[in-house]
Amino acid sequence: MMKFLRKYNRRILAIVVILVLVSWLIGAPLRELLSPDPSKQPVGTAFGATILSRDLHPASNDTILLDELGIPWRTPSLFPVPDARPLQILHWHLLVEEARRAGIVVPDADIDEFFQLRGIQPVQIDAIRRERSVSPRQIRAAIADYLAVLRCGAMATAVTAPTDRQIRHFIRDTKDKIDVRAILFRARNFVNNDDPLAPEALQAHFDAHKDRLPAEDEMGFGYKWPRRVRVEYIAARVAEVTPLIQVTDDEIRQYYRKNKDKPEFSRRERKMPTTTQAATTAPTAPEWVTRQMTYSEARDQIERTLKENAAIARINAAMEALAAELARPWSAVPRGQDGYKQAPPEVMAPDYLPALKERFEKQFGLPLTFRQTDLLTEETARREELIGTASTTGEGQDRLTFAEYAFRVPGFFEATTAGETALRLARYQTPDTPLINTSRGRSWDRFIFRVVDIRPPEVPQSIDEVRAKVEQDLRERRAYDVAAARAKEFYHSARNVGVDAAFEAAADLRDPRIKNAVQPVTLPNLVRRESMMVSNTNEFTAAAVAGKSTLQPPFISPLLERSALFADKCFEMVSPLFSPPDVELPPTTRPVASAPPAEASKRTVTVFAIPKHRAWAVAELTSARPVREDEFQSTAFDEARQMLTMERMVALRAMWFSPEAIQKRCQFVPAKTAEGEEVEAVPHKPQVEHPGGYF
């Protein structure tokens, strides 16, 4: 054996070297050849064909370009639908394929027109081309797909025009106008604080309403606690940091030289007439001139601006670093089945946030404020002293307020159906970015918060938890009966002489205790209903999608809210069949106001209760302006038809572009793993570039 090895050792060594070299050269390709190709991973079936991971790559490229151009491909409905799930790349792939199967072709001229209408300039397209290493043809192809998807949706959701009867009804609701003179008798203005409250009466009132929320009771009596959260937060305030900032005269002068021609450094002054003009000419309207401020005049303003800018920059740096530090323990924690992360043990310590606050104060040399709140309802969260008005960027471009964000927590916010991008917080978790207060268009104070206690709606254990509110409500409940009697008495006078004359004859209503609280007000140009489209497109869209009316009651200034009850009661007086309410005159020692027989006239007056506000109202119709027949043929007819058509289109378009409808329409069935879980539809970049040139 040894002789054999000595004789052939060189050949054996050569063979071993060759085998090692061959295995090294072909090992990686061989392993790649034998291992499964992730780009060929099926993600599901649609249109009767299998969709592979690599099939989603073109849609991924298109959506990246659309995002760069600021085109909302995730919400292609006419208006953003509140709480709607945004589209994912899979849905966009299905929509594009659906449009192609429908034979929709977008001409080049339409793409050029789209760029023009959206104000997309060639320089913007060129910047995207260079940054993304794509050709103009690829950008135009992405726009063509977007327009094809929209046109396919428009064709499928075309609606029939509303009938003439529907249009006329809409016009009457929104165009008929009346003028009303009204007076409110609120319970709170007739409360007798000296009236004793027996403990038995308080307990009985509490027991009758303790299981209700205020919104569940006609008169707002309810003592069940609504959902509440307790919050800890750190605040960095510009007003506290600005005094610590120092700026030099050179910085102030340099800023003045660069910005002195801007509008904020100009003054508008009255031009003074010359002595000769003043003596020889008649007085004329004053002339105003604009002049540039001198350095000495502008210095204090510039110093304040520079300090505020520097304070904001330091606050921003500190709070961004703090947010990153707070997010670090959560980065490796996966989300659970409920869509929320489980809090790491280290963040649950009571002194966790105060300790970080002290460390970052020293690190950045600026004062920070730490606070823990009482249990907050959504209403009290909006009024929280420092952080109550802060907000952050939510889904899309909407602002998410602190009060909204604080209740996006387990038990209150369904994270599993809200979409991956929906903001939510686990208990003890902080937002990824600070919340910001804005003032005069500028970003100011910054806040980082976390929810440390979550309380679902619960019944108070005893009356002692809400005693002050129970006492106030019971007094107002008694006063409500007093207000009702006084309103009915006033109504009888107003029917004879009108609201204003009846008020002049009512000396008790000018009592100092209720001065200016009970007095007539004019409600001009009152309509039955107003379109939500005019005031709030989000509410308009939500109502249309839900199949509800997109008309809303008018705003009633004495109530400080919209009221269908108030509007409907007032418009009852317009009907030729209107009959004044038959209300019995309560026992009273005050005389009922009346007019002389020769001038006696029954006014068009009504009286009604508004339980929600614990009030009664007396209203007099002073004029009515119904829509004339010729007005039905004017532009009002076309406007109403467009509004009703839009209502139907919004609802259909929202349903068409919902993820559920897209998957059902395209017969999408997700692929599943061996364990029965759905395969995530994630695009995989192919090894060989697509002929169209994908990046």
Structural overview:
The protein has 22 helices and 19 strands. With 695 residues, it is an alpha+beta fold. Strands 12-3-18-17 form a four-stranded antiparallel beta sheet. β8 (391-393) and β9 (399-401) form a beta hairpin. α2 crosses α6 (136-156) and α10 crosses α12 (295-327). The radius of gyration is 36 Å and the shape is globular. It starts with a helix and ends in a 25-residue tail after the last strand. Mean pLDDT is 85; it is low at 686-695.
Helix content estimate: 40-55%
- Helices, by number, come to 22
Number of DSSP strand runs: 19
* Strand-residue proportion: 5-15%
Describe the SSE topology.
Layout: H1 2-34, E1 42-46, E2 49-52, H2 57-68, H3 89-101, H4 108-117, H5 122-132, H6 136-156, H7 164-175, E3 177-186, H8 199-209, E4 228-236, H9 238-241, H10 249-259, E5 266-271, H11 275-280, E6 287-292, H12 295-327, H13 352-364, E7 369-372, H14 378-382, E8 391-393, E9 399-401, H15 402-405, E10 435-439, E11 442-455, H16 467-497, H17 499-504, E12 521-526, E13 530-531, H18 532-535, H19 537-545, E14 551-552, E15 555-556, E16 561-562, H20 564-571, E17 605-610, E18 615-625, H21 635-656, H22 659-665, E19 669-670
Antiparallel strand pairs: 1-2, 1-19, 3-12, 3-18, 4-7, 4-11, 5-6, 8-9, 10-11, 13-14, 15-16, 17-18
Helix pairs in contact: 2-3, 2-6, 3-6, 4-6, 7-21, 8-16, 10-12, 19-21
